[in-house]
Amino acid sequence: MNRFASAREKQGQLLLLAGILLFLASLILTLAPAARERSWSAELRWTHWFGFFVWAIVFGLAHVLTCRRLPDADALLLPVVSFLSGWGLLTIYRLIPGFGIRQTIWLLIGGSILLLGIRIAPELHFLRRYKYIWLTGGLVLTALTLAFGTNPAGDGLRLWLGCCGVYLQPSEPLKFLFIVFLAAYFAERMPLKLRPLTLLLPTFIVMSIALLLLIVQRDLGTASIFIFLYTAILYVASGKKRVLTISLAGLALAGLAGYQLFDVVRLRVDAWLNPWLDPAGRSFQIVQSLMAVANGGTLGRGIGLGSPGLVPVAISDFTFAAMAEETGLAGIVALLLLFGLLINRGFHIALHAPDNYRRLLASGLTAHLGAQAILIMGGNIRLLPLTGVTLPFVSYGGSSLLTSFVAALILLIISSQPEQEPAALAKPDPYLLLSGGLILGLIALALTSGWWSIWRGPTLLDRTDNARRTIADRYVHRGSLLDRHEAPINITTGDSGDYLRTYVYPDLGPITGYTNAVFGQSGLEASLDPYLRGLQGNPARLIWWDHLLYGQPPPGLDIRLSLDLELQANSDSALGNHKGAVVLMNAATGEILAMASHPTFDPNRLDEQADSLLNDPDSPLLNRAAQALYPPGQALGLFYRAAGWEGIPEREPALQWNDRLGFYTAPPLRLPVSETSTPDELLRVSPVQMTLAAAALSNGGIRPSPRLATAINTPEQGWVILPALSEPVAVFASSQVIALTDELILEGRPCWLWSGTGGAGTNQVSWVLGGTLPDWQGTPTTVVVLLEEDNPELARQIAIFLLDRSIAR
Amino acid sequence: MSGVVVLILRLLLAAGLYVFLAWAFLSLWQDLRRTSQLLASRKVPPIGLQMVTGDGSSAQIFFARPDATIGRDPANEVHLEDHAVSARHARFSYHHGQWWVEDLNSTNGTYLNSERLKIPAVVMTGDVVRCGEVTFTVSLPGETVQSDQNSAETVRIENPQQ
Question: Which of A14, A198, A515, A693 could be joined to A661 by an S-S link, Cβ 3.0–4.6 Å?
Answer without folding.
Answer: A693
